[in-house]
């Protein structure tokens, strides 16, 4: 028997490359293609219709009606000829066609009597497959049917292009996610490296300031303290940007004394005021004492805005004013304004002044200093409180920045806080686990000032030996140490020694979720470096209080779930219940697979759980899974992946607890 001829397009290699670019061969069924096939069958009134692609040796059916098989050899397909054409091929009666009249599928097989095929042509002109209508009887299509086939063929190519673009977007998204994770990790590690020496600089400067100094020495020490605080502010600004981008910066809602906060900011900054500038603070007589909100973020906003005003004002005045513009049964609406008579902002720069790394003039950084981050952070912090910042400015006349924040009313009256002194805590014996010599020396000096006795362990293992030999009231625990780090040491103290001794984490690191991880391994307090002596002393007093009970709650953003629910509370609850039932079990499987180095299982579990994390807008946990998934794909787990797995485990416990309380 004569082998049927196999016509080959002149651009066969390029055509095959175009086909393989779509990664469509041997893929699973797809509703979009199945719907197109049904539409062809309906429009043309035929029992057989298919969407197929032709590679080196076969015709593979992506979707078919009336065929029942997934592929046929290329040399017996009608479509091997159709891909040679630039337009639709229509054979009304195969018995009368010299090319096909003796074909086995005409005389038997599929009993093809009518055939219409449209080449599936890529945007760059390659015929990679066909869209076909086939019947067992003779037929002639009308022009509407032919046009419909051409339109459906274009739709099929559009679906392929869309799929390719989605794959590319997904790849770009993964690259972007890896870049964000790398950036966050870099920022966190750099903050650790900067904060460690900065902790010593600020700490020893504070200690030196407490000694007897002459006027010149006092002036020098004040200058060093201001420089240290400015450097710390820049480091914190960079970290805040990272937290805002990943959705991990939240706004507190706790009672605070608004008037005291404003006066504190005023007193803090008035030492920077040039002699030629008058610095004023005007508070509305009706302004409330106590409100509920985020005192720290308000402080940060005002320090940035007032600091800018003072920096760019050489003469005249800088005025900070706060007015109550509205009061309801539950809220106060307060307008904050920072106005100066400084250099002003050019009109063309007003729209971009809040952009990151942007300043009013290219020469601003050189003349006045600054990173161009402050106003961008201010804008985001204000927007996180459902408010908006506005600016009025005239060049060489001055600027005014103002915003309105709604604060909840507080029933609390401020309690008089007794001054914290070391004597009030008695003669404490404290163990410090810390490997950095400068930090050891600093903490020792601070503890001596407090009147406490201190032993120092170079690492966690040495710290455990100290605890086995001596009695201590408290442990100050660095997180990054050789041999045994802070986490491993705390777990040993809690689980192997069964000790309940209070442990305070002290770290210059700033990875997302680290504070939660500290609490979940059994630590009682958390003090970031560089630490302030009053903050450390207050934390010590807090954890030593017998009535102290650590309370913390992760906040889960349900806005996406609420949007999907469209007001259906039953659907919302079903989604929450599914998360509670499904995710802890999957996390346990992930933990087990991770321990067993089952890379395939870890990769699949991490990938599947990420969609749930994204749905509940748990960006930090989704980022943890992204790192784990990537390392599982590379079949090698690093210490970073182990850290992320621990953070993810602790995070899921907190999220489930929160959702159950709903």
From TrEMBL:
Q: What does the record give as the reaction this protein catalyses?
A: ATP + protein L-histidine = ADP + protein N-phospho-L-histidine
InterPro entries membership: CheY-like_superfamily, GAF-like_dom_sf, HATPase_C_sf, HATPase_dom, His_kinase_dom, HisK_dim/P_dom, HisK_dim/P_sf, HPT_dom_sf
Per its record, what are the GO molecular function terms?
ATP binding; phosphorelay sensor kinase activity
- What's its top-level EC category? transferase
Using the record's annotations, give every residue carrying the modification Phosphohistidine.
607
Q: Where is the Response regulatory domain?
A: 429-544
Q: Does the keyword Kinase apply?
A: yes
Q: Which residues carry this modification: 4-aspartylphosphate?
A: 478
Compartments, record wording: Cell membrane
Presence of keyword Secreted = no
Which cellular components does GO assign to this protein?
Answer: plasma membrane
Q: How does it assemble?
A: At low DSF concentrations, interacts with RpfF.
Q: What is this protein called?
A: Sensory/regulatory protein RpfC
Species whose genome carries this gene: Flavobacterium johnsoniae (strain ATCC 17061 / DSM 2064 / JCM 8514 / BCRC 14874 / CCUG 350202 / NBRC 14942 / NCIMB 11054 / UW101)
């Amino acid at each position: 028997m004569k082998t049927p001829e196999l016509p080959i397009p002149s651009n066969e290699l390029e055509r095959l490359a175009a086909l393989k670019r779509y990664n469509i061969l041997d893929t699973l069924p797809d509703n979009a293609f199945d719907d197109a096939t049904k539409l062809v069958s309906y429009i043309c009134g035929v029992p057989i219709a298919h969407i197929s692609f032709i590679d080196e040796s076969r015709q593979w059916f992506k979707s078919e009606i009336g065929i029942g098989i997934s592929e046929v050899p290329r040399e017996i397909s009608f479509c091997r000829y159709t891909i040679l054409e630039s337009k639709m091929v229509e054979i009304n009666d195969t018995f009368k066609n010299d090319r096909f009249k003796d074909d086995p599928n005409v005389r038997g097989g599929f009993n093809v009597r009518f055939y219409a095929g449209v080449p599936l042509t890529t945007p760059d002109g390659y015929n990679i497959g066909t869209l076909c209508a086939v019947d067992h009887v003779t037929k002639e299509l009308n022009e509407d049917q032919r046009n419909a086939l051409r339109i459906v063929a274009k739709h099929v190519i559009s679906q392929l292009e869309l799929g390719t673009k989605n794959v590319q977007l997904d790849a770009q998204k993964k690259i972007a996610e890896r870049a964000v994770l790398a950036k966050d990790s870099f920022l966190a590690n750099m903050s650790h490296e900067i904060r460690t020496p900065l902790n010593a600089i600020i700490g020893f400067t504070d200690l030196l300031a407490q000694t007897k100094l002459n006027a010149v020495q006092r002036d020098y020490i004040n200058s060093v303290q201001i420089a240290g605080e400015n450097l710390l502010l820049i480091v914190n600004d960079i970290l805040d940007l990272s937290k805002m981008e990943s959705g991990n910066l939240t706004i507190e809602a706790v009672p605070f004394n608004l008037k005291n906060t404003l006066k504190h900011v005023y007193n803090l900054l008035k030492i920077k005021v040039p002699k030629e500038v008058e610095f004023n603070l005007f508070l509305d007589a009706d302004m409330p004492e106590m409100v509920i909100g985020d005192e720290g973020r308000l402080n940060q906003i005002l320090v940035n805005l007032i600091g800018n005003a003072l920096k760019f004002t050489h003469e005249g005045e800088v005025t900070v004013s706060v007015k109550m513009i509205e009061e309801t049964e539950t809220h106060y609406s307060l307008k904050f304004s920072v106005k100066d008579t400084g250099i002003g902002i050019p009109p063309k720069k007003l729209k971009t002044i809040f952009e990151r790394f942007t300043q009013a003039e290219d020469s601003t950084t050189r003349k006045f200093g600054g990173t161009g981050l402050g106003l961008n952070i201010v804008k985001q912090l204000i927007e996180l409180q459902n408010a908006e910042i506005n600016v009025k400015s005239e060049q060489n006349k001055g600027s005014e920045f103002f915003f309105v924040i709604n604060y909840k009313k507080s029933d609390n009256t401020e309690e008089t806080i007794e001054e914290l002194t070391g004597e009030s805590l008695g003669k404490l014996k404290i163990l410090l686990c810390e490997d950095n010599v400068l930090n050891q020396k600093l903490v020792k000096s601070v503890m001596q000032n407090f009147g406490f006795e201190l032993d120092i362990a170079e690492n966690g293992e040495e710290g455990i030996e100290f605890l086995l030999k001596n009695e201590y009231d408290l442990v100050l625990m660095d997180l990054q140490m050789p041999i045994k780090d802070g986490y491993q040491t705390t777990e040993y103290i809690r689980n192997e020694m069964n000790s309940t001794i209070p442990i305070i984490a002290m770290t210059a690191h700033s990875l997302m979720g680290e504070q939660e991880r500290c609490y979940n391994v059994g630590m009682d307090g958390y003090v970031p470096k560089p630490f302030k002596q009053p903050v450390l002393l207050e934390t010590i007093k807090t954890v030593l209080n017998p009535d102290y009970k650590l309370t913390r709650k992760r906040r889960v953003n349900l806005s996406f779930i609420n949007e999907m629910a469209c007001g259906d509370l039953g659907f919302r609850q079903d989604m929450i219940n599914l998360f509670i039932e499904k995710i802890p079990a999957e996390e346990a499987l992930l933990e087990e697979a991770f321990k067993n180095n089952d890379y395939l299982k870890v990769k699949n579990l991490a990938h599947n759980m990420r969609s749930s994390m994204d749905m509940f807008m748990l960006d930090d946990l989704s980022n943890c899974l992204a790192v784990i998934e990537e390392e599982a794909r590379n079949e090698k787990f690093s210490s970073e992946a182990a850290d992320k797995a621990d953070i993810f485990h602790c995070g899921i416990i907190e999220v489930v607890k929160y959702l159950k309380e709903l």
